[in-house]
Design goal:
The structure is a single chain. This protein has 297 residues and is α/β, with parallel strands linked by helices. It contains twelve helices and nine strands. Strands 1, 2, 3, 4, 5, 6, 7, 8 and 9 form a nine-stranded parallel sheet that branches. Helix 5 packs parallel to helix 6.
């Protein structure tokens, strides 16, 4: 599987599938090689991945990340192998242990297990299975959502790498140190084409406030060196600036370069919509401007 240095990450909730296909085709035209989609409470992401793959020529679809409570290991492996066999190895699977409020509250499961132990058991179950369908040409790769040291160690020892979300270049350097060479480090970075500091930080503060309300993201922010006071009730400029790369395309490109320099194999940029809704054509301008970074990498 080809791993381009620059990719795009989008929260698919709220978009009609035809709109996402059109978005994917625009990315392909600009020269991007990978589109990351998410797993939420909307359309099944495997179904969406199949539609995007069918309507594009070379674009890879990466799932960041599939909730392991949504599918048993047999079903997950079948989707992973089936999509790769059907579409020439263009599907990358990311797995995540999710959150207690989603697993027990929204999905109605009776128990949310300890994330590292649960993920280890799930990966071991997938590794122990024999796929009975026509195999893809190459063994598909699997990465896991990993923020803390123990999950990163699991990504190193039981997966093909890690997909950290909402982190900084300093976290990327730490992650690479744990993963070592040879394992994929595919990081997500939120971006905003906005040169007005207050407007950009308003978006950043809203993002951080949401993340700080989710225990594993709050713990990650604290491990990255931010204090409880910086996380609220008034989010500090330092945290807002760290989580959202804003400014012109040059400034945003510098943040991307910082992740590469810290050891990232790929940076998947997620555009933050200025109005808080779905992406507009104006929001997408930054992706077209950043595309040459991928061609030059």
């Amino acid at each position: 599987m080809r791993i381009d240095k620059l990719a795009v990450w989008i929260n698919t909730i709220g978009y009609p599938s035809d709109d996402l296909v059109a978005f994917a085709r625009r990315l392909e035209g600009w020269g991007y090689g990978t589109l990351w989609i998410n797993d939420g409470m909307g359309s099944d992401p495997m179904v969406l991945a199949a539609k995007i793959l069918a309507r594009t020529e070379r674009l890879q679809v990466a799932l960041g990340v599939a909730n392991i409570y949504s599918r048993d290991p047999t079903m997950m492996l079948g989707a992973q192998y089936g999509l790769n066999e059907q579409w020439g190895g263009r599907f990358l699977l990311g797995l995540g242990a999710s959150h207690q409020f989603i697993v027990e509250g929204m999905r109605g499961h009776t128990a949310w297990g300890k994330p590292v132990a649960t993920m280890r058991a799930y990966l071991e179950a997938m590794a122990g299975m024999t796929y009975a369908g026509p195999p893809p040409a190459e063994t598909p790769k699997t990465v896991i959502a990993a923020l803390g040291p123990k999950m990163l160690e699991l990504a190193r020892d039981h997966a093909d790498g890690a997909h950290p979300f909402a982190t900084t270049p300093e976290h990327t350097a730490m992650a690479r140190g744990i993963l070592g060479p040879g394992k994929l480090l595919l990081v997500e970075q939120k971006i905003l084409l906005e040169t007005d500091a207050e407007q950009a930080r308003t978006v950043g503060r809203g993002l951080v406030a949401g993340l700080a309300g989710i225990p594993n993201y709050r713990n990650s922010l604290l491990r990255m060196g931010f204090s409880e006071d910086e996380l609220g009730p008034t989010v500090s400029d330092r945290v807002a600036d760290a989580l959202v790369a804003w400014g012109d395309a040059v400034a945003i490109g510098q943040r991307i370069e910082a992740h590469w320099d810290a050891g990232a194999d790929q940076v998947a940029v997620q555009v933050m919509p200025k109005d808080g809704g779905l992406l507009t054509a104006a929001d997408e301008v930054v992706l077209e401007r950043l595309a040459p970074l991928n061609r030059a990498a």
